Amino acid sequence: MTFRYYPGCTLKTKARKLDETARRCAAALGAELVEPADWQCCGAVYPMAKDEIAPKLSAVRALADAKAQGQELVTLCAACHNVLKRTNLDMANDEHTRDAANRYLQLPEAYSGETTVLHYLELLRDRIGWDAIRAKVTHPLTGRKIGAYYGCLLLRPAREMQMDDAENPTIIEDFLRAIGAEPVVYAMRNECCGAYVTMEDRAAAKARVEAILQNAQACGCEELTTACPLCLYNLRENGGALKVTYFTELLAQALGLEAAE
Amino acid sequence: MNDTYLEYQAEILRMTDRDPKRCMICGKCTASCPAFSEMDFHPHQIVGMVERCEFDVLETVEGLWHCMSCMACSERCPRDVQPARFMDAVRQWRIRKQGGEHLHPQQVPEKIDEATPQQAIAAAFRKYRK
Question: Has residue B119 got a pLDDT over 70?
Fold first, then answer.
């Protein structure tokens, strides 16, 4: 299985761990991730205003590149995934966006949302499968009580993201079970960490994180895992009460590619 | 009605592609908003102000900058008004105006630390300035 892979800006810098572990795990699970040579930053947030076309163009380039290769496009950062998936739907369903973007980009072939955008978690669930992953686990995370921190961007808007139930998701818990850990469900796993507002008002972000961590601890989480570099930053730097890792680090440990800390 | 305000309203409705008249003021959006306590005006009020063309107030609302675009309000809106789109459109309307930028590049060094992900900076630039 070969996939196009869009890492995004943060995975080349502050979230290198997320990128590295994901690549090694994919290879171990028989999925080849091919990074295009010339991807550009997706802009980190999906432009909601209907007349904002230019901020979507870098996402369209990545989507059109995957189409040209005839491959599905795998994302890893929750923010990139949100931008690429929603922009792709605009290119498929919104005539104004599609026409304007194609007129501007002048691609060899017009793009109309043909690419399938998969988050790495969907790659694990829908292309590789939990059973196949379970079969490759050599170092199960037995006894580790881990809370999934979904945050916002993987799940919402559910109608567009179509990954899981936005209010009662299970994909990360299923993942945790597949690698032998004990998933702990807590109420605030899909509430916002404060996101970019940490730049505007750090105290506000700290208040968000404190509420999340208190709830997670009260429910018995001993550590948290996430797919988003900004969630990880907020949970660690504006909180710190629980250990937080990228879900791919846990996968790497379970597959015996990396020692547990 | 002030013509300029009607133009503002048309611009915002073009951005949101949603009808604020569908709002039945149930308040689910505001109840869901994790930034409630930091906001002077809340999502359902912003939707109402756009509908009523209250741009004199919208010009000064500070709560916009505390919206995290977490989409909880839009997800839980029973009328598909999508308040997050209104929050974002009013924010866009504010920053598109001359001198409307809410974040200047010179301010960035004091707002970040060693661990701040690029994602936070890119997102803040998208949300707080043109």
Answer: yes
